[in-house]
Amino acid sequence: MVPRQHGSIQGPQVHRVYRRNSKDPRGQGHAKRAERKRSHLQGVCKEADHTGRITIEFFGGIMLGIKSYGVYFPYYRLKRGDIGQFWASYQLPGEKAVANFDEDTLTMAVEASRSCLKEENAKDVAALFVASTTLPYAEKQNAALAAAVLDLPDNAFTLDVGGTLRSGTNAVALAMNCVKALGPSKVLVCASDMRLGMPNGSRELEFGDGAAAMLIGEGDVLASIDASYSMYNELYDVYRPANQRFVRSWEDRFVREAGYTRVVPMAVKQALASFGLTPADFAKAVFSAPNPTYLAAAAKLAGFDPKTQCSDPLWASLGYLGSAHSLALLAATLDQSSPGDRLLWVNYGDGCDVMALTVTKAIEDYKQKQTVMRMMNSKGYTTYQRYLRWRELVHPEPPMRPKTEPASAPALHRDRLSGLALYGSKCKKCGTVQYPIQRICMECRAKDDYDLYPFADKHGRITTFSHDNLAVSLDPPTTLAAVDFDGGGRMMLDLTDRDPSAVSINMPVEMTFRKFRFTEGVQVYWWKSRPVR
């Protein structure tokens, strides 16, 4: 990639995108050299000017794009009116998605990735990129942990992508180039965020929690990514220092006029010019924006009709999902698209990424199986008081309980197959399914004669349960359930995302990856059960 050079984004517009059979005003020799360069790069043309813009165009006969996608929105919703009522402040309409006390960016990324890989073989994934601004570990690769949970191949390349709300689309661009470099391969991109705004502030009303994942590859794709354009913009509009929890921003008018509504229209116009397309060529424009006001203003300035061409921003139902928002919006748009539709995908954050996509015939079968709307409609409501407790924004008097024992790194490493990938064992002689992995079968006593048995995607039913009001929890009571799995096996599990009064014998449940406990700087993750969504 050509290194970017410093300069103002208001500098002269210089873009040269070479296409086959096009005339070059500088002479035939330049055009021939450009053609040879295209051939050397296997169809990828890149150029940057002194303003820091980079244009990437994908050529050639290979179709690259999205092979599958999935989203995860937490079960709970918080009404914005409840927040305003608590603070005796202004009340905005709608609601936002709120992660449970035992969820974080990593657990949501895993859930979205599991949805994305539901009909794919995880062993075929060559790389995993996890994009977020709120990853739990600053010095420990979060993507490696997610790869272990998803049971990806040991030689899969893993990478954390962060530092910007564009990290999701940045990761997609990296994945495209990765597939180009590796040949026939699949790269999993997951974006997840769980940002915090100051209590009784506009950001608190705006931010929602969620994750989205996409599998990037070649061949039979749901939507081809035909062209990509990127530019950066250095501006202190929305930011968060590394040692602070709350997102900060400058005065709203400056943030809007010097940031989003200036940079996005400029980037879109320049991208369309380099693609040789106009707003009329697109069935839908997918603008990732912090709120509908920003979106409508930028779309109009870019030449799009916000009412007919722009996809639903999901702000009223979920809030602004940070780095995950652009991927979630595209997934929702693909669910409503038809073969042949051309989509413009736009994401903002310290600059702007613009991509042009074309929907293929494969979308017809796929969107019937996985819909974003199903996940959006699977919800329950929580209170603002519980939200404050879950985020530890208030600190009630702690119960008088013994101190939690520190986590053991050797034990976590030893049990990683059972604890992270959720494998049990199935005896080869008698067929008994057991958890955790047992060297000696509890039924026929056969030794070291078993196959690994995956539980993560199994459903089960509650055999018995109890509510513990004495256990330390941010969401009391703690519900424990004995779960019998379809196909065999039983586990004693925490039950989360539940209404204690609605728990019953024979309730169908599924598995979900969650936070378990935090000690001495180590976040221990484990699996819990939840009512089937």
TrEMBL record:
Disordered: region residues: 1-41
Domain of life: Bacteria
A single MF term (Gene Ontology): acyltransferase activity
Domain ChsH2 C-terminal OB-fold, chain residue ranges per copy: 459-514
Ranges of Basic residues composition bias in the record: 29-40
GO biological process, one term: secondary metabolite biosynthetic process
Protein name: 3-hydroxy-3-methylglutaryl CoA synthase
Native organism: Desulfomonile tiedjei
